[in-house]
Amino acid sequence: MVHWPLVYGVAAAVYAGHQVQAVPIEDDKSDVSAEVVIMNDGFPGIGTYLSRKSHPTEVSSPISSAVTNPIQAAVPGLYESAPAQPAVIGRRRLEGTKSHDMMKLEKFFGLDLETDITILPTRCQLDPIPWPGSYWPTYADSINYRWNKNQPSPAEKYANAFGHDATALMDKISSMNGVDKHTHRKRCSHKRDCEALKDSSECGKRYGKKTGHCIPNWFGLCHAWAPAAILEPEPRCVVEHNGTRFEPYDIKALITMAYHGSKIPTIFTGSRFNGNDKTSNITDEYGRFTDERRRDISPGFFHIAATNIMGRFNSSFVIDHTAGNEVWNQPVRGYEIVRLAWTTPDAAAKRYFKVDKYPFNDAATKIAVVTTRLYWVVESGENGPLCSTGRVDKFTTKVDYDYILETDETYQILGGEWLSGSKANHIDFIWIPASKPAPTTVTAFGMVYSEIEQLVSESIRPDCKSPPAKNSSAVDHQSQGEAPGASTASSGSAANGPTPGASSNNSTSSSESDDLPGSASDDSPESASGESSRPAPAGNTTQPAPAPAGTPAASAGNTTETVPAGTPVTSAGNTTRTVPAVPAGTPAASAGNTTGTQPAKVVAAPIGTPPAS
């Protein structure tokens, strides 16, 4: 993994934009003001309820050479961790200056973000692809769960192979991340004992126990699996260590738990909604949530972040794909713009908001109507390699997000508004794991990162042998009972029927609501359809969408021409152009565990062209 230069100085102040009179929109809230947030129990993306008294641990002052910090070796020059003060929250408008979250991304990648919609890449498929794994739900007692029939759990195997006390380790894991952490919750012996709570609780029991406690099924380690899936290579083969056999699924469990306890640095953008879904769903006259944290992130920031991070910088990131209070962290693998059409602010106001004058941003002179198809990897209960075999496509979800983007005369994105079902169902926040754990990391529950890395390294040797497709895997176990931590969303999943602990929102549908793009609703832009569960390959096989007069966009031709970044491209003619996003050889953050420099993997299409589905 190439670590981008982290240019950390005094933390930039949160931008508080001037409130524009008669413009009711407020852009994204920000949970944190510092550039770097440590992934610990106060991390805004943690996969459980977040205490209202907790604050993120922010990196806020220069680290001294005398200070020993578990992440210093991984990211030289980082700041020492300190309890953060509540972030100063202000209006973050995109016009006039860059938002604080945009500045965080620029400091991390060491490059300016592009905001010209006519230059931003229209699609990207990352390689390597983040690997599917389990989020090891809390109600299943985390990695103490015996997923492989009657074989020991991943935690037991690790302790036995490396000379640790298995009982003590499992007790610590349970008390910190499993069933024993929730002994204050309602006691139960069956799931039906928890149904009255109406909070998606399962009856979580420790192995061998007849009773347990009601625990919401979304609690788990998705916040640790997602960065591990991005930064670590996928375990592929069986590993024997000191007489203990580790399946790839066991190794995935261990590396996931190691990330949970390693306090890695992250770049966190947006704001977690931590309220009550039922009491925070009040909308204004335009159908937008009045609760700002439920409304964010804005489509303006989403579009800029996704197209720059993936399309220009060739890097993955993590999303919480639900706007409500549940947190489902997923690693992203690609995107494509399936619709980009142009209209005027007042025309957009009439069509989408039923008013005569555009009410949100007086600086907007053009409106782009956009549908972006985002692809992310979901949880899996299947053993063995999934990325190298192509099975990852069965554990990939695609969702279409509908929105408008405000631009000025030069096509710089100023902001935007969600449309249709995307008003309620959109991404809550975006974050990037800044580095792998330090080699010397030892977690609070006694797991040694270097020992687990040893297993990972052995599992990806060129001469290693992958386990047979039906080798005592989660597939076999799931046919006999429940396999927590797998997704029910993907066709071809190992799960036979509903899988406890899966996200009900991990849908392979091309839209997250019944109000589908192209339906009868006046609030829905039409969108291209597509059935593949992988980002579309290169190719321009459809016509470009309409554009306003003078738009620097190519016409319907299918030949390509490469021109320097920033070169004006006329709207007439039969050529399209690829605009290099970064200079050749620019260091780029990889989606996997690779090193070196590489250009961004960008597939360009005519501006406004729906990519082939």
From TrEMBL:
Composition-biased stretches (Polar residues): 469-481, 568-577
Gene3D superfamilies named among the record's database cross-references: Transglutaminase elicitor, body domain
Designated name of the protein: Elicitor-like transglutaminase
Region (Disordered) residue spans: 461-613
Biased composition (Low complexity): 483-521, 535-560, 578-592
InterPro entries: TGase_elicitor
Naturally occurring in which organism (per UniProt): Hyaloperonospora arabidopsidis (strain Emoy2)
Gene Ontology molecular functions: aminoacyltransferase activity
